[in-house]
Amino acid sequence: MKRELINLENKKVSEIDLPDKIFGLKIYPDIIHQYIRYQNAKARQGSHKTKTRSEVNGRAKKPFAQKGSGNARQGSRKPPHFRGGATSMGPQNRDHSFNLNKKEKILALKSALSSKLSEEKIVFIESLEVKNHKTKDLDKKLKKFKFESALFIYSEEEKNINFKRASSNLPNLSMLSDQGLNVKDLIRFDTIFIEKKSIEKINKKLSWIKKIKQFLQKELLV
């Protein structure tokens, strides 16, 4: 699969070959949804807490005599039906996260990338290097691309300090390292810009299962 490689001036520089097993895969919306649920659950703080009968203020003394008052018998003022009493079956501190299979994570990332590419919402860019860190100059360049919001995926090896500083003041624009690639950000932003060196890193990251299988086959043959 071939796609255009462009620069920040929105001009074609060359063409690149993309692996079909990553960018041309069948789209699985259910797997994408499951990955987003996994991310949201992992991000939840889980610090909600209500007091039980043992934690609420007050004494466990009987409020009145067992018989003769005309009221229903009570052993304490701490139960939930009393004013200022405990909360029945209320939320407690807990971890909301759950495990997701590595193969599912990789399949979700591949599906998200394939979905974006099928919608023509991925731009492959040669480099994010700019001469200065002025927001005004970068904004002029980015206006040549039509997008509502944009995510720039960059390689840690490249020095994009000027681009990071210039883009920090632009609304609806964010930067993400290829090491932190995730489904939620791919879906949340309208257009994805991927730096040339990041394509190689993404390919290696999402092809580790195939490499392990090849390694095991070699070991078995020896």
Fold and architecture overview:
The chain is an alpha/beta fold and 222 residues long. The protein has two domains: 2-41 and 99-221, 3-Layer(aba) Sandwich (Ribosomal Protein L4, Chain: A), CATH 3.40.1370; 45-95, no CATH class. The protein has eight helices and six strands, in the order E-E-H-H-H-E-H-E-H-E-H-E-H-H. It has helices spanning 20-23, 29-43, 102-118, 135-142, 161-167, 183-188, 196-205, 208-221; strands spanning 2-6, 12-17, 122-125, 150-154, 173-177, 191-195. Strands 2-1-3-6-4-5 form a six-stranded mixed sheet. The longest helix has 17 residues, at 102-118. The chain is elongated, with a radius of gyration of 28 Å.
Strand content: 5-15%
* Broad CATH class of the largest domain: Alpha Beta
Structural class by secondary-structure content? alpha/beta
Biggest pleated-sheet summary: 6 strands, mixed
Number of domains: 2
Terminal CA distance = 35 Å
Identify the CATH homologous superfamily of the largest domain.
Ribosomal protein L4/L1
Helical content class: 25-40%
| Sequence of secondary-structure elements | EEHHHEHEHEHEHH
> Averaging pLDDT over every residue, what do you get?
89
Radius of gyration: 28 Å
Q: Which fold does the CATH topology of the largest domain refer to?
A: Ribosomal Protein L4, Chain: A
